[in-house]
Design a protein that fits this description.
- There is one protein chain.
- By secondary structure, the protein is α+β, with helices and mostly antiparallel strands.
- It has a single domain, classed as TATA-Binding Protein.
- Helix content is 33%, strand content 26%.
- The termini are far apart.
Length: 143
């Protein structure tokens, strides 16, 4: 084998190792939880969506309208989420990716007739739109 091939294989192995380490890192820790009665704000990274008032346009999604928190929780479970915490007016859930087991948090709180919802990756910069797609799937599961 030529040196270039060994370098290429080494780089691929290094990238795979980095993904494995990030996947393991994402499995530690709970969802952010409520902060002053609201869902945590999204960071500047493009790996989060939220319906909370004050969310900037690139992270903003609509709340779940005319839905009970219990129905939202069941729909999250129906699309593959695992409920990690449930208390009066709030729940959190985790979703894990297939290969590297990256963990994303979904949180929801009852807000009158609506449910405010947030979906965010625990690690990394971008999510490839996974969290937004998950919210589309959640809305479909509620219909």
């Amino acid at each position: 084998m030529k040196l270039a091939a060994y370098i290429f294989i080494g780089l691929i192995a290094l990238v795979m190792l980095a993904f494995i380490i990030l996947g393991k890192k994402s499995q530690k820790g709970p969802a952010p939880g409520l902060m002053d009665g609201r869902l945590a704000a999204c960071s500047a990274k493009p790996n989060c969506v939220s319906s909370e008032d004050g969310t900037d346009a690139k992270h903003k999604i609509a709340p779940l309208a005319d839905v009970s928190l219990q129905d939202a929780q069941k729909a999250v479970e129906d699309i593959g989420g695992v409920i990690t915490s449930s208390q009066d007016g709030y729940f959190s859930a985790e979703f894990s990716s297939g290969i590297f087991k990256f963990v994303d948090d979904v949180e929801a709180r009852q807000d009158g007739k609506n449910v405010q919802i947030r979906s965010a990756s625990r690690v990394g910069h971008s999510d490839g739109g996974v969290n937004k797609k998950r919210m589309v799937a959640l809305r479909a599961a509620l219909k």
